[in-house]
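Q: What residues go here?
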C-alpha cells in the first residue's frame, strides 16, 4: 500500500484538497492520511457548504483507506521521519502555512509533517493559493523550494478548454500528480494543433 499525506489549510480553494484526496483514493493501492486545519474547516463550510467528510465523493473501500489526523496531534505518525510516505501535498497551502514551513515552525501536524518531508528528502508539494503575492510570500517560496519542496500555485491552464470549475480544478490536480509521478485517468495534456 502506497501512503500519501494531504494537508488542507485555511486558504480559499479547499476543493483542490478534496479532489486530490479523491483522485489518490481512486487507486486501490493507495492510502491517504488527511489533516485539516481549523481554519480550513471554516473555509470548507463557507466554500463547499458542508463538512469535508460530507463533500468527499468516496465509496466504502476508499473510506477504509482514508485516515484522519487531528491538526494538533504532533505525535501522529506523519510527524516522524521514520513514518515513510510517497509524497505530501498541502492543498490549498495558505501563506501562513508556507511561512511556518519557511521558518521551521513545526507547531502543528501539517507544518511538522512538511518540515519532516523536507529534512528527510520526501516529496512535498505546496499548492499555494494566494494572489497577489508579497515579497515576503515570494521569499518564503524560495526558502522552501531551496529546502526541497515544490511550489505548485493553483494556477490552472486553459489549453484543455475547461467548461466547469471542476475542469479547472482537475488540471491543477493533474499537475500535482505529474509532480509525484502518478497517473490520472483521462489525463489533461497539451495537444498541438
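A:
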Amino acid at each position: 500500500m502506497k501512503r500519501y499525506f494531504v494537508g488542507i489549510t485555511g486558504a480559499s480553494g479547499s476543493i483542490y484538497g478534496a479532489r486530490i484526496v479523491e483522485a489518490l483514493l481512486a487507486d486501490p493501492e493507495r492510502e491517504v492520511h488527511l489533516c485539516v486545519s481549523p481554519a480550513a474547516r471554516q473555509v470548507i463550510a463557507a466554500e463547499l457548504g458542508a463538512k469535508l467528510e460530507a463533500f468527499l465523493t468516496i465509496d466504502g473501500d476508499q473510506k477504509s483507506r482514508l485516515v484522519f489526523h487531528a491538526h494538533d496531534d504532533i505525535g501522529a505518525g506523519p510527524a516522524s521521519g521514520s513514518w515513510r510516505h510517497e509524497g505530501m501535498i498541502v492543498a490549498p497551502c495558505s501563506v501562513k502555512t508556507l511561512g511556518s514551513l519557511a521558518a521551521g515552525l513545526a507547531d502543528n501536524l501539517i507544518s511538522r509533517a512538511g518540515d519532516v518531508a523536507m529534512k528527510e528528502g520526501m516529496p512535498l508539494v505546496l499548492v499555494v493559493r494566494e494572489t497577489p503575492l508579497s515579497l515576503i510570500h515570494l521569499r518564503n517560496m524560495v526558502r522552501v523550494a531551496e529546502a526541497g519542496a515544490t511550489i505548485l500555485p493553483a494556477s490552472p491552464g486553459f489549453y484543455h478548454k475547461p467548461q466547469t470549475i471542476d475542469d479547472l480544478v482537475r488540471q491543477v490536480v493533474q499537475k500535482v500528480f505529474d509532480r509525484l509521478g502518478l497517473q490520472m485517468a483521462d489525463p489533461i495534456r497539451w495537444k498541438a494543433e
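A: Context that may help when evaluating the design: The radius of gyration is 16 Å. Residues 165-179 form the longest helix (15 residues).
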